[in-house]
Structure formats: structure tokens, C-alpha cells
Design brief:
Blueprint: H1 3-16, H2 22-31, H3 39-61, H4 69-89, H5 91-97, H6 101-126, H7 133-165, H8 169-190
């Protein structure tokens, strides 16, 4: 297996890992306010997350700065909680005007924090390699593909719930975001930060 294939697989598995479901929750929280017809907006959204994620991955891997993993492990569910609560708070605005730009900022900025969560592990994998461009590129392409898989599945489920069970967009946003916020609270409580 080539380096590209290896790191591509690591990126894809990183985002799709059900044991590390915090990233899945974040992508779902970001996507909850969109309809299936908004797929282009959601693609830009997950790409913004990947950009933020890749910046901190690169910076930590290149020893630009170090991260305290227990602080980051606490901040990741905080980002999920903030995104979900914002969805609940602004749900009527999202429905009536589709002003969901805030999620783009969340994706980019919070992607920086999420990138720190995996950076120490990636740094250990890279070892003392001098050139990490190919590995980081492959990892982030894998991450992007994994996010697209999550979004397609989630938005497909939302479409089916709306079309066949008549779940309104407002109720969908409220139910999904409330569930995500609840899980995020549990994750915050369970971190070793306390």
C-alpha cells in the first residue's frame, strides 16, 4: 500500500470511526439545518471543516505548537454543543431565510479544534519524516470523502423522514440538534478535563 493510500484510508476511517463519533456528531450538527437540495452548500460547509482541520494537523505535525490533549478532548464536544444549540436557537431563522452562514464559520473555526484532536496521533505516525505534504493531503482527502459519506447518509435520511413520515424541517432541526447537544453534554462530562 502506498503512503497516499495509507493516509487516505486513515483520514476516511478517522471521520467514519463509530468509536470516535464526535466528528460524526459535529458533521451532523452542521448539516442539520440544510435540505437535500442544499447539497452544494453542505459540500462547501464540510470543505471548510476540512480546511480548518488540516491547518492544525499540519501545524502540530510540524511542531509549530503543541496541544494539551485533555483540553482539546473537552473542547471538541463543546464545539458540537455550541453548534447544536445554535441550530435550536436559530431554527426558525434558518427555515424562513436560510441564513445559515454561521455554520460556515463554525465549520472553519471549530475544524481547527477538531484537527488538534487527531494531531498528536498523526504526528506519531509520521515520525521524523521531513516531507509530510503527501501524507497530509491524502489524509485530508480521505477526511473529506468520509464527511461526504456522512452527509449523503444523513441528508438522505432527512429527505426520507420529510417525504414519507412528514417530519417538518423545524421538527427535524429541533430533534437532531437536541439529540446531538445531549450527547455532547455527556462527552463533556466524561472527559478527563475535570
Amino acid at each position: 500500500m502506498s503512503d497516499f493510500q495509507l493516509y487516505f484510508s486513515l483520514g476516511r476511517e478517522h471521520i467514519l470511526d463509530v468509536n470516535g463519533y464526535d466528528h460524526i456528531l459535529f458533521v451532523i450538527a452542521l448539516s442539520a439545518v440544510y435540505l437535500a437540495t442544499d447539497w452544494k452548500k453542505v459540500l462547501v460547509l464540510v470543505t471548510a471543516f476540512t480546511i480548518g482541520h488540516s491547518v492544525t494537523l499540519a501545524m502540530v505535525a510540524l511542531d509549530v505548537f503543541r496541544v494539551n490533549s485533555s483540553v482539546v478532548e473537552f473542547l471538541i464536544p463543546v464545539t458540537i454543543f455550541i453548534t447544536a444549540v445554535c441550530n435550536i436557537w436559530k431554527r426558525d431563522q434558518y427555515i424562513s431565510t436560510d441564513r445559515s452562514r454561521l455554520n460556515y464559520y463554525f465549520a472553519l473555526f471549530f475544524g481547527l479544534i477538531h484537527g488538534m484532536g487527531f494531531s498528536n496521533y498523526l504526528k506519531a505516525l509520521l515520525g521524523k519524516e521531513t516531507s509530510i505534504v503527501t501524507q497530509l493531503f491524502a489524509f485530508n482527502i480521505g477526511l473529506e470523502v468520509g464527511q461526504v459519506i456522512i452527509v449523503v447518509g444523513f441528508m438522505g435520511l432527512g429527505y426520507l423522514m420529510n417525504k414519507y413520515i412528514n417530519v417538518s424541517r423545524r421538527d427535524w432541526i429541533l430533534a437532531i440538534s437536541s439529540a446531538v447537544a445531549g450527547v455532547a453534554i455527556t462527552l463533556m462530562i466524561d472527559t478527563k478535563f475535570w
